[in-house]
Amino acid sequence: MQRRLFFALPAQSVASALHHCQQQLHEEGHRKPVNANNFHLTLHFLGMQDEHILPQLYQVAAELRSPPFELTLDQYGLFRHAHCLWLGPQHPAPPLLHLVNRLGESLTQLGLPVSTDYRPHITLFRNARAMTQCPAPALRLQVSEFILYESISAADGVWYKPLRRWPLLNQSVDEKQQ
Ligand code: ATP
Ligand code: MG
């Protein structure tokens, strides 16, 4: 069976602050908010894949060593082609790029396509045609795990099912000595 897959960071810990941003943006005329249960920051989008690949994805994710980190979400942006209005980090934390790059290397080794123009973001509105004039907040997102999600299209809209999650870990003393 084919499944639509992506790796992402969950953003539920800042959901109420993101919802507050949506309320401000709504006053500006943005009308199609992302459901708060769906807030996430994509690391790698894999698209439709045969489910036989899942054990390999679970293995590379489990073997990945990357430390936990904090991300400051402090910039609004607009993807003009996708009509997405988003909030993201103005300066992506080096540990985020480390995680994305390491995961990307593993996915490439599995023969999966990896996009080269990575732009970390949390989508707040769809069908957005104009950039916001609202000043961006500075939300701190504590990142301690990453998740492989399945994107499921249902009658009442898309939702994301977490298939498996992995903690981000600081290197142990033993590993550093190796
Ligand atoms: P829908 O496509 O139904 O409007 P969605 O875009 O939220 O909803 P998906 O298309 O399954 O759902 O995407 C899941 C995640 O992967 C989203 O964060 C989306 O922005 C990202 N994504 C989707 N397509 C791509 C792509 N071609 N390149 C990079 N990221 C993508
Ligand atoms: Mg999409």
From TrEMBL:
UniProt motif (HXTX 1) ranges: 40-43
Q: Which SUPFAM superfamilies match?
A: LigT-like
Q: Which GO terms describe its molecular function?
A: 2',3'-cyclic-nucleotide 3'-phosphodiesterase activity; ligase activity; RNA 2',3'-cyclic 3'-phosphodiesterase activity
Q: What's this protein's name?
A: RNA 2',3'-cyclic phosphodiesterase
Active site: residue positions: 40 (proton donor), 121 (proton acceptor)
**Pfam families in the record:** 2_5_RNA_ligase2 (PF13563)
What InterPro entries would the database entry show? Cyclic_Pdiesterase (IPR009097), RNA_CPDase (IPR004175)
What family classification does the UniProt entry report for this protein? Belongs to the 2H phosphoesterase superfamily. ThpR family.
- What keywords sit in the KW lines? Hydrolase, Ligase
Q: Which reaction does it catalyse?
A: a 3'-end 2',3'-cyclophospho-ribonucleotide-RNA + H2O = a 3'-end 2'-phospho-ribonucleotide-RNA + H(+)
**Where is the motif named HXTX 2 mapped on this chain?**
121-124
**Organism, as annotated:** Tolumonas auensis (strain DSM 9187 / NBRC 110442 / TA 4)
Functional summary from the UniProt entry: Hydrolyzes RNA 2',3'-cyclic phosphodiester to an RNA 2'-phosphomonoester.
